[in-house]
Amino acid sequence: MSSANPVLVEARRGGIVESFHRGAYAVLDADGGVVEQQGDIGRPVFPRSAVKVLQALPLVAGGAAEALGLDDAELALACASHGGEEMHARTAASMLAKAGLDAGALECGAHWPYHDGALKALAAAGLQPSALHNNCSGKHAGFACLGCLMARHAGREPREFVRGYVRPDHPVMREVTAALASSTGFDLDHAARGTDGCSIPTFAIPLRHLALAFARVATGQGLAPAHAAAARRLRRAVAAAPQMVAGTGRFDSRVMQRVGERVFCKVGAEGMYCAALPDRGLGIAIKMDDGNTARAAEVVMAALLLRHLRADDAEAGFLRSFADVPLVNWNGVEVGRLVAGGVIALAA
């Protein structure tokens, strides 16, 4: 049970541990070998947005990305949970325009940008957010682009064909689900199914299988040839445009901007994080028991990257800054630290 999972992150104040976060993680190679694990890696968990690169495989493998001329920034946005900055909304709109669609085709819903500056700029202009500002708009624009090509092949009108693409039985979502099943090697027909925040299906998958999928993304091994080629293309796109995957000041974008294609990492809601390490042929999957993402899961991912990425001293120092984080109060006074603890405590 998850209650037996070990402590992975500690919040320290006044010389003692004030609180802590338990979780589990798996590090696998593409053969399915477990390189490192802690906690229950067999319990099915909802990966949420951490698997967007797996959901984007059909967009490239099926030929839609090439047919529509999607560029690096657009492909990176298809894998993103972005902050709703102007560059993100603009790029999502560009993807849709290439498919002959507009923001009205998106079925992810609208919310205010997560990026504070973008939110304030929108409000100051007296504007309301649209679906383009939704953190999942790039993924959904990718679904719409895939649907556009499928419509052409079927002799259907794209806007009509794309409508309802979030439903589990829609041809677009069936293709996306098939890619998720094949890459993870997990039987989704018998998996628990929920509805994600952006309204698409989300399936409960064990960390072991999620880490395997990301090792496959890292190497292409175990993927169908078209999906292996798609994974390489998506990794290159993200390395070329890392700001599209998250945005200004965000962990994913900052790490990938610093180390390039040697890491693809992606956050998911409720304490999920996954990563592919192509130069090591490894995949990582993390789940924090308390669903803490921005605070705890980033610390664990940074600690695991320190352990498994071939990093030089400067890169190691950069990653360590995310695994041992000062806690500062409103007066700018350091009052404690958030650190990788327990079984993944950093060496002094």
Lay out the secondary structure.
Layout: E1 7-13, E2 16-29, E3 34-38, E4 44-45, H1 52-55, H2 57-61, H3 64-68, H4 72-78, H5 86-98, H6 116-124, H7 137-154, H8 158-162, H9 171-184, E5 193-195, E6 201-203, E7 205-206, H10 207-219, H11 225-240, H12 251-259, E8 264-268, E9 272-277, E10 282-288, H13 293-308, H14 313-323, E11 324-328, E12 334-340
Helix pairs in contact: 4-5, 4-7, 4-11, 5-7, 7-9, 10-11, 13-14
- The mean pLDDT is 96
Main beta-sheet annotation: 8 strands, antiparallel
Strand content: 15-25%
Structural class estimated from helices and strands: alpha+beta
Structural notes for this entry:
The strands form 3 sheets. Strands 1, 2, 3, 8, 9, 10, 11 and 12 form an 8-stranded antiparallel beta sheet that branches. Strands 4-7 form a two-stranded antiparallel sheet. The chain has a two-stranded antiparallel sheet with strand order 5-6. The two termini are 32 Å apart. The protein has 14 helices and 12 strands. It has 348 residues and is α+β, with helices and mostly antiparallel strands. Helix 5 packs parallel to helix 7 (137-154) and helix 7 (137-154) packs across helix 9 (171-184). The chain is globular, with a radius of gyration of 20 Å. The model has no long low-confidence stretch (mean pLDDT 96).
